[in-house]
Amino acid sequence: MIMELQEYKKMLINTVLEHYPVYLQSKLLKYMTKDDRVINDRRKIKPGQGSLLSIDVTGIEGVGNKLCHLLDHAEEGLYAKIYKYVEEFEFVKGYRYACIFEYKEDLDIDMISSFDSSHIQLYYHDNDKYDCMWRTGSWIPTVNLEKDRVLFKYSVTLDNREGDKIKYVVLVVMELNSKRVSIYFDSVASEYKNPVKDFYAVMLDTIKRNFEKLIGINLLTIDFKAIIYYIQYLQNNNVHLSENIKVSAQKMKRDGTVSYLEAKKDSEEEPTIPILGELKEWLRERDYLFEVNEETRRIKEELSNFIEEIEQTSDYPKVQIRFRDKGFHLEMTHAYKNYEYSVFKIDGNLSDDRELIEYAKACLDKYYRELEART
User: Fold this and answer.
1) What is the rounded distance in angstroms from the CA atom of residue 52 to the CA atom of residue 241?
2) What is the pLDDT of residues 55-106, one digit of tens each?
3) pTM
4) In whole angstroms, what is the distance from residue 284 CA to residue 303 CA?
5) Which of 182, 258, 303, 335 is buried deepest, with most CB atoms within 10 A?
6) From CA 95, how far away is CA 169, in angstroms rounded?
7) Could you tell me if 329 and 347 are in contact, meaning their C-beta atoms sit under 8 angstroms apart?
8) 3-state DSSP of 52-118
């Protein structure tokens, strides 16, 4: 059943006001002013012309009220298809979480664009179509074609107990040159989750399988745990990395027990594991005690080997990567909810759209290819 436009717009308003944080609302409003159809700056209004050529929201107090004013009008005049800006914004905005796969098949833009309209809906700003909302298993993603990548927007209707609806978007970005597929998604308030416990895992796996069937490819898991070990190996062997990054364990699993570790975000110290890290530092500071004779040097060597063995044989299902040159942190959870793949989480405000996660992806992909060449 197709959702009526008025209901769709009402859902967008609720999504923007209830689901978007304030900084994201501000970015959306700024995006709406990109072609001067919407004016939120009095300096851009020409005397006697502004109200005729554009929608002036400068006199409305509050970002949320401005957005509500723009979206809650009838489809006429300058207010027609204002909701399209929201749909475009969903393609470019930053997302909190990401999951990255690779594929082996050869595909190009023409193959994707030739898909039947019953399977995909190509995005155009000027047409009258709006995103197809999934509720009952019939899913038609909205597709935006770029030069060397294709963006598939999966839109889901979520309801709370009061019957309020929001639009939940999962964005799948297919990079044709590198043969990578990234699935982006955001967190959502618990009252909209169904199932509550594994909402993200179920959503991610459902869209992954739907996308594979739609395109006719297999999304292959990338071993990001191995990449992290490789980066640590390079750093431990004093290999200079062009990126200023640090890796800290946040969760450690060994011999059936799990330890949750607190990463110090602003610390310049070497990433350490509690107790083991303190012991390593203790050994470094008291090196003179072990230089007495051959026996004491052997004691130090045995202790160092013991620490290294524990570090190498332990599993680290969650790590934090600090990209200090870019000023952000990336949390990585391996084997997310017992699935094979890793899930990334950006820490902090998503002020730079997808620039931060794209930078992290490029960095990890670089060392992935290095590791592949070595093995």
Assistant:
1) 56
2) 999 999 999 999 999 999 999 999 999 999 999 999 999 898 999 999 999 9
3) 0.82
4) 12
5) 182
6) 10
7) yes
8) HHCEECCCCCCHHHHHHHHHCCCCCHHHCCCHHHHHHHHHHCCCCEEEEEECCCCCCHHHHHCCCCC
